[in-house]
Amino acid sequence: MEKLTITVNVDKHYGGYLFYPECDNAKIFAELAKTKTLSYQALKHIKKLGYEIVAKDFSSALEGI
User: Fold this and answer.
1) Which residue in 15, 4, 13, 17 sits closest to 59, CA to CA?
2) pLDDT in tens, 13-32
3) Cα 32 from Cα 9, distance rounded (Å)
4) Is the pTM higher than 0.70?
5) Where are the domains of the chain?
């Protein structure tokens, strides 16, 4: 079985992180959330669905998800 993954690009703004969708699946999740970025909370829910989240930059931002 193929592992489900999404890729996000992480950018730090004003002490917080913004998670920009990079792959098609991540973009679909952002469309469902009606946002341009995915929130930390949204990523936690996506992970509960069985997806592995891969960060292009600032991978430490995903600690705790």
Assistant:
1) 17
2) 888 889 999 999 999 999 99
3) 18
4) yes
5) 5-62
